[in-house]
Amino acid sequence: MTVEQALGRLAEVVHKDARHVWYTRTTELASLYRKLVTGDDLDSLLQQFVQREDEASFKQRVRLTQHVVTTVVENIMDVFYKVPRSNYQRIVEHNGKSDDPQTVQLEGLADEFWGEKSLDAYMKTRWLEMNADDPNAFCVVEFGDFDNTKERAQSYPFEVTSAQAVDYKYQNNVLQYLIVETEFPLPLENRPNHVGKKYTVYLKDQSITLIEIDPKNRLPALDGEYTQQGDNTAVFRSKDRLFLLEILKPHNAGWVPAKQVGYARDAWTKGQTFVSPYNAAVPILLKSIKVNSELDITMSQQVFPHRLQYMPKCQADGCLDGHLANGQVCSSCKGSGHASISSAQEVMYFTMPHKDDELIDLEKILVFKGPPIGVVKFQADYVDKLTAAAKAFVFNSESFTQAQIQGTATGQILDRDNIQDTLFTCSDGFAEMWSFLMYTTANFADLDKGLDARLIFSKDFKLKGLTELVADLESAKRSNAGPAVIMHIQEQIARLIYSDQPDMFREWSVKERFNPFSGFSEEQIAMALASPQVPARIKARFYMSGLLFSDIETEAPGFYSLATAKQKELVEAKIQQYMDEAGANAPPAIRIPEVANAN
Fold first, then answer.
1. Distance from first CA to last CA of the chain, Å, rounded?
2. Taken in order 112, 115, 116, 119, is the CA torsion positive or negative?
3. Calpha distance 183→186 (Å, rounded)
4. Which of 190, 269, 342, 355 has its CA 20 to 30 A from that of 314?
5. How many angstroms separate the CA atoms of 269 and 250, rounded?
6. Longest dimension (CA), the chain
7. 66 CB burial (10 A radius; 0-12, 13-18, 19+)
8. Where are the domains of the chain?
9. In this structure, what is the dihedral angle of CA atoms 348, 354, 356, 357, given to the nearest 10 degrees?
10. Residue 245: is its pLDDT beyond 90?
């Protein structure tokens, strides 16, 4: 989209309230998700049962309801936090080197991307939070003023809600532009609490701002049209509002520096917008709100049951069935004709009769009636069933229920695979957003040439902990599994241990690559070392591995970032050096003369 086209569309947005085609859908979802996640205004989702519940009873039920749906949503989302905590591979390097000066500078900028926290910390926290309550929100990468002769642009995230993202357009799944509407205090002479509006248009190579100003400036402007004020400024009037237009200096990124945070596409919009990761459970969550509310009122009736009793007649002078002789309502019983009982602690006295057959059965005077216990149990079980169903629908798994935990091993494996499939989709979106933020940050700082920035998650997305992986390794060794299987498990363990230390994982990988007996058992290694068929240089590489890499690190800084061919060349040269030194220091062989044949 050109600047001229952007200005035309901006005028329609401001003057005619134009919006993108799915604006209503995205904002309604955001409103619903926010209620489910935060509990804010959650009572509005309760519905009155008109046939059996009057307005007063409904309001009472609302007051008594303690919502649990927010806890269920939080419990579901907690599982998705396994994605940033998993053992993925993080690659940031320039021209194949992680210690390149440009890489070091970029990592420094990424460390301050989110104030005092890093870009990685932002992704691990805000990305999932925004997916939970507003998946159609945008994350815009911006940067402040800087002196390009002394420093590089420091990028930071600007979060745009779906309500603020009033207009945008994709073409072949590539964002063409984004128009954002924000508000700020703008006190006017006759309206001290007036709220001003600011519109920002993000294009592929530059941005445009349209900021409301005080109309008392009396700048000449026609309604709904731009009036040029300077080379890069103009004024725009929309009814009683006056705006100042500014075309900002181009950043020339080549792409719109904004990306929607969602990854799960909305079938309702044919995949053109996004839904929350737990969207499959929303119908169940809404049902649970109703059922939980009914359970709360039932429990209240169980603890405070209905009291049914015979009441003594009102003893006020002149009271006859609640009315006086002059027709007025009795002020004592308020027209009920019964004596008032204000507390359960109040005692009702009856005169002791002279005969046993005149005794009154007190059980027949007062009884308490509450809901049957079976109803209470049914409602409680139903709430638990809906809660379990919500989790099962999201992950296509019943691993979160006690019944499944006690099930068969095969069933648990299938459930784990289903959870991994769900989380792998999430990891794909996580990696895509992370790469976008890293590349945009690098572009604004002129550090994108030769950059390789990506996250690599395991295809099967195994989420086992260290204890489980160590147990798998021991089991593989006991069953004499092949070296390839053992090497794979060892790599998973290393990825987990060094998940926050990518350089250490790279170092481990290089050392393991040059380990000639990687994945071998102790018995297999012993046999190989004793075999005359194994070349001496292979044995030397194993025996001297500690000293080998220590010497190379000293002599060739940055060794672990070099190309594999260069690494192999250095390793082979050092091994040959060790073998030559060992041969020179070996004691001379003692020649044993042959014994002459006595015959």
1. 107
2. negative
3. 9
4. 355
5. 34
6. 159
7. exposed
8. 3-37+138-260, 498-584
9. -90
10. yes
pLDDT at residue 385, rounded to an integer: 74
Number of other CB atoms surrounding residue 381 within 10 Å:
10
Burial class of residue 275 (count of CB atoms within 10 Å of its CB; 0-12, 13-18, 19+):
buried
CA distance 445 to 154: 7
Query: CA angle, 496 as apex, 494 and 498 as ends, to 5°?
Result: 65
pLDDT over 50 at 303, yes or no: no
Question: Closest by alpha carbon to 294, among 382, 398, 233?
Answer: 382
Query: Cα dihedral sign for 535, 537, 538, 539?
Result: positive
Strand partners, 519: none
Specify the range with the lowest mean pLDDT, choosing from 116-130, 286-300, 507-521: 286-300
- Pull the structure tokens for residue 347: 């005692």
Among 166-180, 230-244, 520-534, the range with the most confident prediction by mean pLDDT is 166-180
What's the DSSP call for residue 94?
A: E
Q: Taking Cα atoms as reference points, which of 106, 97, 103, 91 lies closest to residue 556?
A: 97
Q: Of 259, 221, 29, which is closest to residue 141 (Cα–Cα)?
A: 259
Residue type, 53: E
Please return the burial class of 500, using the count of CB atoms within 10 Å of its CB with bins 0-12, 13-18 and 19+.
exposed
User: Is 517 in contact with 487 (CB distance < 8 Å)?
Assistant: no
Supply 81's token pair: 């936090």
- Mean pLDDT, rounded, of the chain: 83
DSSP symbols for 462-508: ----HHHHHHHHHHHHHTT--HHHHHHHHHHHHHHHTTT-HHHHHHH
